[in-house]
Amino acid sequence: MAIQPFFALSTDAYFVKRVHRAGITQTYAYTPNPTRCKTIGVPDGSIDIQFDFYKDDVRAKVMGPVPSHDVLETEPGHFYFGVRFDPGVLPPFIDGKFKDFLAQVIPLDDCMRDRKLEAQLMQSRFTGMRADLLIRAMENHIEEEKDREQNLLVDAIIQGIVQSKGCIRMDDLADHLQYSTRYIDKAFSRRMGISPKQFSQAIRFQYTLSQLTHGHSVKMVDLAQTCGYYDQSQMTRYFKAATSLTPKKYRDQIVNSHYESKFINC
Description:
By secondary structure, the protein is an alpha+beta fold.
């Protein structure tokens, strides 16, 4: 599951519901607290649809995955509700390709191909209704026949990478799928806008992030080995590029902020 711990670190209470259904990972909601840390996005390979509520106004945007840590524009007093999709999933009712959303924040109105669904999302009275609408839209989607074989291949690549927590070698994946590494790289990059290796790095980072966020008294050298890094220094280098923090400083921030106490499961 893709996590964004700095969302929770930027607030006093973080509401989350783990969905794991129809390509949707979770829903979340929070109001930023300016006395906390900034709301920062980190690599996760996932797309979010996020709604921004303020007084009687509601806006919606599609947030693509970032290649490294990126400060998000949030406003104190605003209430944010988001739906996070599984890594590599582009909702079928969104116009474009996955690669079009890399490191982008795009108003929902600019990329929504299903205008009826958009109207329902914007007019819904409750956040739960919005989540249900998106789940039903995902379940009712019938994949187009165009490029079906290549889409199935990319789906299989994503599955292999996610199941291995980003540690599978591309040669081994190519052997398993019975395609050349060159063809796999071309097919994946064409749809996703990044290489399988870059996607693997994001998934491996997410696993490392999860271990540091929810683990207990983990030794960094052991964590590096568990997460498939060559050594601790390589893990630290990747982690700092993704968060601007070393793994140890990140873990200290999690402990000192009483991170787990912020979560309210819906």
